[in-house]
Specification:
This protein is of the alpha+beta class. Helices cover about 40% and strands about 20% of the residues.
Length: about 80
Amino acid sequence: MKVIVYSTPSCPICSLLKKWLKDNDIKFDDVDVSKNQKIIDEIIEKSGQMTVPVTEIDGEFIPGFSLERLKKALNIK
């Protein structure tokens, strides 16, 4: 399972999301979108989201820190 978190260093919700993933032993790549306009444009195009965090799990984009959607996508009870 490939998990990517698109975030910025100053985003408190991003920090909470990454802590939750770590606490649940979920390995993920963290992409700082504040340093790359091309990535921002790609995420907006693919997910329709203009805010962070956005989590990509095997091609599915989950905006914000939607615990129910994250658990479902990661098969966590």
